[in-house]
Inverse folding.
């Protein structure tokens, strides 16, 4: 879902899927992401905020609903004593704001958080990707690498309709 300042929301659109497809190729990352010195659990800030990737089914079973999982689960890690104080404050505020805070009792969640394990892996063809973008522009990248063209749009809507009527899940 994409939400804009004027309140407009885009959900399950081809345009949004194109962005997600391109993002997950790891081609559009900044070069520094491929050698990020912060890709570990040893972090300089008091807390770390991020999306909770993977494992939510096991860790949050019986704690949050499927609808809440689909809406998104955030991860907050504590990196200092000051960070502990921030979490205590958030815990006290959680009822007022209808937040669900769940303390993970071990570090099994870390294996799903790739950004806490290692930098993003640079795709082998990343330099060719960047050269292509420099030569032909971003619209050409969208067409070549993310299916932002007529064929890609048709493929997206066929899958969308097949899922909608229950042919695929």
């Amino acid at each position: 879902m994409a939400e804009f300042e004027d309140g407009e929301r885009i959900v399950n659109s081809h345009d949004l899927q194109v962005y997600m497809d391109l993002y997950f190729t790891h081609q559009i990352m900044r070069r520094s992401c491929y050698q990020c010195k912060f890709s570990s659990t040893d972090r300089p800030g008091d807390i770390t905020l991020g999306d909770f990737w993977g494992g939510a089914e096991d860790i949050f079973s019986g704690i949050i609903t499927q609808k809440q999982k689909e809406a998104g689960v955030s991860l907050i890690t504590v990196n200092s004593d000051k960070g502990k104080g921030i979490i205590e404050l958030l815990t006290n505020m959680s009822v007022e704001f209808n937040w669900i805070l769940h303390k993970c009792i071990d570090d099994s969640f870390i294996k799903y958080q790739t950004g806490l394990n290692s930098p993003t892996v640079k795709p082998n063809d990343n330099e060719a990707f960047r050269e292509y973008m420099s030569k032909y522009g971003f619209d050409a990248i969208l067409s070549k690498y993310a299916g932002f063209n007529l064929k890609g749009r048709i493929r997206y809507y066929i899958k969308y309709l097949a899922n909608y009527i229950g042919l695929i899940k």
Remarks:
- The chain has two domains: 1-36+119-169, 40-117.
